[in-house]
Amino acid sequence: MKIFVTGAAGYIGSILIPKLLQKGHEVTALDNFMFRQNSLLDCCFDKNLKVIRGDVRNLELVKELAENADYIIPLACYTGAPITNLDPMAATSITRDAIADMLKFIKPEQRIIYPNTNSGYGVGEQGIFCTEKAPLRPISLYGKLKTETEAKILDRGNAVVFRLATVFGSSPKMRLDLLVNDFVYRAFTDRFVVLFEADFKRNYIHVRDVADAFIYAIENFDRMKDNVYNLGLDEANLSKRELCELIQKQIPSFYFTEAGIGEDVDKRDYIVSNEKLLKAGFKAQISIEEGIRDLINTYNILHKSEYYNA
Question: How many CA atoms are closer than 13 Å to the CA of 231, on its beta-carbon side?
Fold first, then answer.
């Protein structure tokens, strides 16, 4: 297949692109390389890869690159509430508006695989799993932009949408501002963390499982299309305290405590069901424990300051 990926050198794209190439697909990868990352260097020799440095808001460029694509995977995004809040105008133009504009000129037969975030569930109800039918109540600008974009893509049709759990794990374009990645880094370097609202829960998914789910959607598109799927680990609906306890098993010197006052700026608190995707035939494989081990290896290599998005 011919696949056009925007934001291709980001955290997810840097895992996904090599996997697509290994499957024999032809990939056109667009990225503005705003973090000066070199995460696709190992792929550059592959004759099926075409890398373009450019801005997803350049509609003429995007129209040209998308022209012959069988699949479009729009990863370009200001990912996460902190970086979105730093520059709301740029975040809005890239995360929502660029995709809305692209939908106006791509052909009806071209297929889209879109990663939304399950942070759109906002604050769930105690003890009740969020399914794909649960109301979307995003509490951050980031969540609102992603939710609005999902609606536009589903209205257009011929698409598969994944609502991603909080992603974790190592990537050639690393991010330390994701919760598991951040907590393991603090455990590895500082040996302690202070928790705010320690019982708030969310769901998690390894970045490699995300890439594999995208490939699964390509290979099973006709029976999955025009549907939304939660993408996460059912066994990983964890509170911050539970996450820290798992980290402590692998880093025994790690100490965590709860703050008596103060609050977390990220108010998400929900548990998620991934049953619909399981019934469609895809099951995430990488556990939180495996991801923590992965991250410990990673943090023996890299330096903190280079890998925060915001």
Answer: 30
